[in-house]
From TrEMBL:
It holds the Pfam family PhyH. InterPro entries: Phytyl_CoA_dOase-like (IPR008775). This is Phytanoyl-CoA dioxygenase. Signal peptide: none annotated. PANTHER family: PHYTANOYL-COA DIOXYGENASE-RELATED, PHYTANOYL-COA DIOXYGENASE-RELATED-RELATED.
Length: 267
């Protein structure tokens, strides 16, 4: 994956970039099948999309399946994060999936839930998050959305006492819905106010959250390996609705790159 100066500039100024078609269709399709099987949904039968109540972002709590790992260990994703974070010595976060069908009562959910995941003042070095669209995603299809004009105002963001943005705080700012094709990765700076928007289209949104960070402590390495080996969710998410413990399936097979991204072997 060729990360250009333009990508780096856009990330620094707008707070996010889109890397179109970075993951092959076949790998995306395997995760789509996994989501369908877990939720009991059939892509062609809208009535089947609502069997499980997965909340605002449609969180599908699977973390250790082979299909998810096959995307995590796809080299182009590591290449992108390595260039942006200026080190190849990265670990992949053990993140999950999203299945967000059209909102049945959009009028009851008029907030876009714009937020930060971490207090602005505590983000002292570049921290990246990411979402991979598994199918083509329109702006109205519950797309990732964000507020680049607020990202450009650190003095406003520094004043914030909590993580959520009220209608008043968002007044006058454009909320940008990011459409992209299947296999496209959106990477954003954690200081960018963002959310997943309401799905007002007639198709579900399917996505895999994926991001990388510089390798960390021995303690955290050991706990990551244990989670992979026992097929478990990270502890902070273990009480999510529908979480299996351990998760179904075999221990995922890791490539040489996958082993480094887990921490099983060292960079
Ligand atoms: O699902 C999305 O599009 C956004 C995810 C989000 O808000 C988050 O990861 O904090």
């Amino acid at each position: 994956m060729n990360i250009t100066r333009q990508h780096q500039y856009s990330l620094a100024t707008e707070g996010y970039i889109v890397l179109p078609g970075i993951v092959p269709q076949a790998l995306c399709s395997d995760v789509v099948k996994l989501i369908m099987s877990f939720t009991g949904a059939d892509q062609t039968k809208p009535d089947s999309w609502y069997k499980k109540d997965l909340g605002h972002n449609g969180i599908v709590p699977i973390h250790q399946h082979q299909a998810i790992w096959d995307i995590r260990q796809h080299p182009s994703i590591h290449q992108a994060f390595a260039k942006l974070l200026a080190t190849e010595k990265l670990w992949v976060r053990l993140d999950r999936l999203s299945f967000k069908p059209p909102q049945r009562q959009p009028e009851a959910f008029d907030k876009s839930n714009i937020h930060l995941d971490f207090p602005y003042q505590k983000i002292t070095s570049l921290r990246l998050q990411g979402i991979l669209y598994l199918t083509d995603t329109e702006e109205s299809q519950g797309a990732f959305c964000c507020v680049p004009e607020l990202f450009k105002q650190p003095e406003v963001l520094k004043q914030k006492k909590d993580l959520w943005f009220s209608d008043e705080e968002l007044e006058g700012y454009e909320i940008k819905n990011v459409a992209a094709t299947a296999g496209s990765l959106i990477i954003w700076d954690s200081r960018l106010p963002h959310s997943g928007n309401i799905n007002t289209s007639d198709q579900p949104r399917l996505a895999q959250y994926i991001s990388m960070c510089p390798e960390d402590s021995e303690e955290s390495r050991a706990s990551r390996i244990a989670l992979w080996q026992a097929r478990r969710a990270p502890e902070k998410w273990r009480n999510m609705p529908y979480q299996q413990d351990p998760e179904d399936g075999e221990v995922a097979k890791l490539t040489e790159l996958g082993q480094k991204l887990l921490g099983l072997t060292r960079w």
